[in-house]
Amino acid sequence: MSGSDITPRAIRDVLAPFGALRPQFPFDWTGKVTLHPSLTRFYEDVGPHGEDGLHGSDGLTIPTTGNPFEIAPLARLGNGRLAAAGMAWAVSAWRNGGTSGWSWPTKRGDPFILDQTSGAVLHAQHGEGSWKPEPMFADVFVTALILGTIGAVHEGGGEKVYKEGLEARPEWQAASRTRLAPTLGAIKADTVASRLGW
Predict the structure, then answer these.
(1) What pTM, to 2 d.p., does this model score?
(2) In a designed cystine with 184, which of 91, 143, 164, 188 is the match (CB 3.0 to 4.6 A)?
(3) Predicted confidence (pLDDT) per residue in 63-112, tens digit
């Protein structure tokens, strides 16, 4: 499923519990690299913004097993709080056949990478020796819907989601797959849930 099959309203409904949403436009972007058109549309139509704080808006924080997913507001792409840790929203050093990508959004340690050529979203996991980003979602709209859906499952279970450590209980693993399947199909839902710790 691509973002063209998903309405901005559906994504906004899923993301709303995790922070304020408001349209953001290209003039909010202060970076030196041209934004991918899908990212521009995403910030205009969905608008992850978060709450205003001392240093501007803080973006969305979406709970999941382990570290949360974070989506920065447009004005803070490239200078978010993860910049110091080297996992910023800035253009990543990742190259794949000469194609550059963005680290967007991120789960601290495991970045999602927006391919600047295709608009697809790839995912890389730490602890595998070298970064090997693999295609995961068709575009940023599908990515946001899936991450928001996982966040909703996590919020629905709270602490009951976990058994020992940060591993999800089997019934919550099943719940995540059930919620993801209408968007991804059963097989892809299982693959995505497993890769993301569910």
Answers:
(1) 0.85
(2) 188
(3) 998 888 888 898 887 654 433 333 333 333 343 444 455 556 655 567 78
Q: How far apart are CA 151 and CA 168, in angstroms?
A: 13
Distance CA 111, CA 118 (A): 17
SS (H, E, C) the chain: CCHHHCCHHHHHHHHHHHCCECCCCHHHCCCCCCCCHHHHHHHHHCCECCCEECCEECCEEECCCCCCEEECCHHHCCCCCCHHHCCCCCEEEEEECCEEEEEEEEECCEEEEEECCCCCEEECCCCCCCCCCEEEECCHHHHHHHHHHHHHHHHHHHHHHECCCCCECHHHHHHHHHHHHHHHCHHHHHHHHHHCCC
